[in-house]
Structure formats: structure tokens, C-alpha cells
């Protein structure tokens, strides 16, 4: 299959600009990373304090364990118990894991405990917020799940039982996902015994929903657009992609199966906003061009996520 060579040439400045933007897309900067991490932790903490804790929704993790232990020890709030549990897990992590591998996990563990303690002090709740158990379960799942998805998407974690799962993975044949599931199921089972079958069933439902929501939100955040364009005059479109969007594209010669005509086919992977800009440009300059835009939930490589 012959390959068409794009006739446009880039200056050194344009190449450097494109490379810098590509690196920025692949990995968030330090400030962006820190802000996203804390937004995720705040959402998680609000979900715990406003919805999980008053309803005894022990959906796994250190927060679920802390809710159970707080019930057994009424003098200790959930935030304080999370400090104790997370400190113990961090100590275990330093003993059994490589210290460099748990740096942000340690920060997340203590920051989440701090946020929970802060919100318990700011918004003390002696009873459920609305009295609608199912509605509160939705928010108890949704808020921490969105927070966790934001955190997972930047390559960090919420800490807590993640450390225990990492230890189990390192010293047993268990994968992290299975180890986390076992930890969470154990906590949910304990909640069912302590709070009764009704709350236990809500916890099981919440645990299942949490896994689905996290996966769906991560896919939504990572969705990219694969754009394919059949055009008679590809160079203006390529120029817009390369110089206007600072992206790249593949340009190929293809033949139509029905008409037998030769076409220049452009293939490029863009984010939603860039795909919309390209679509508008093509419609304005070459309205007869044929274009398809397909969503992809995971793109790995230069300019996108690192593998």
C-alpha cells in the first residue's frame, strides 16, 4: 500500500511546541496532579461523612472498617479510627514493600483521614441526611467512586487497603484486584453480621455498584476520538491537524470499493474538543469529504496515556 508523504514541513519551534504539548497530554504536571488528587480525596471524604457513616454503609476499604469499629467503640469517630488503621497499614507497607512504591499512597492515606476528620467536625451528623436509604446509597457510591476514578486516572490511589492488597500481591499469588475484593468482601460480611441483613444487602449492592461506576467513569474520562477522513485535498486538513491542533495523523492512499476512485485517507486520534474542531474545519473547507468519528476508551502511546 503506497504511503503519501505530507508536503508540509515544520519549523524547529513548531516541533518543540508539539513535543511539549505531547508530553503534557501524556502525564499531568505536578500542580495538576496534586489538585486532582486532592479533589478526588475531598469527594471521597464527603461521601464517607455525609452518606456512608450515618447509614452504616461499610462498603469496604479503611472507611468501611472504620465505620464498623466506630460502632463497636462509640467514643471514637470514624476519622480518628481511619488515622489509626491507616497508620498501621503504612507501617506494614514500609516493612513489607519498597518505600518508593508507596509514596503517594502514604500521602493519600493520611490526607483522606484528615479530610474525613475535618468534615466530621464541620458537618456532624447524628442521623442520615434525608432518611431515604436508597437515595443515600446512590450518593455513598457515586461520590467516592468519582473521587477514586479521578485519583486512579492520574496513577495514584486512595491508600488504605490498597497497601494491604499490594502486600498480599507481593508475598502471595493474588492479584491486586482480587486481593482488594477479598478485603472488601470481608468488611461487607462483618457489616452484615453487625447491622443486620437489610444493611448488609445494601452494602453488597453498593460494593457491586462501586466497581461498575469507577470503571465507567475512568472510561468516560479517557475517551478519545479516532477520526478517519476521505478527502480529495488532504494537505489543508493535515496542516490544520499538525499546526492548528498540534497533533499528528497517518495519511494513506486507498481505493473505493464501489467507484474504484483513489482517495487520500487521513487517520488521527484526538480528544473530544479537538475532534469537534477538526469536524467543523472539514465541513467548512471540504464539505464533500467523507468523515467518521469513533470513540475509543483507551489509547496508549505518545501524546496520550503512558503504557
What is the overall silhouette?
elongated
Can you give the mean pLDDT?
A: 82
Structural class of the helix and strand makeup? alpha+beta
Number of separate helices: 11
Quaternary status of these chains? single chain
Rg over CA atoms, rounded to whole Å, is 25 Å
Strand order of the largest sheet: 2-3-1-4
Q: Could you give the count of β-strands?
A: 4
Low-confidence stretches: none
Describe this protein's structure.
With 307 residues, the protein is α+β, with helices and mostly antiparallel strands. The chain folds into 2 domains: 26-221, no CATH class; 223-296, 2-Layer Sandwich (Alpha-Beta Plaits). Helix content is 64%, strand content 10%. It is built from 11 helices and 4 strands. It has a 4-stranded antiparallel beta sheet with strand order 2-3-1-4. Strand 2 (250-255) and strand 3 form a beta hairpin. The radius of gyration is 25 Å and the shape is elongated. The two termini are 29 Å apart.
Keywords:
Alpha-Beta Plaits, four-stranded antiparallel sheet, 4 strands
Short description:
The protein is an alpha+beta fold. It has helices at 12-26, 30-55, 61-72, 78-96, 103-122, 133-153, 161-171, 176-195, 197-222, 234-244, 272-285; strands at residues 224-231, 250-255, 262-270, 290-296. It contains eleven helices and four strands.
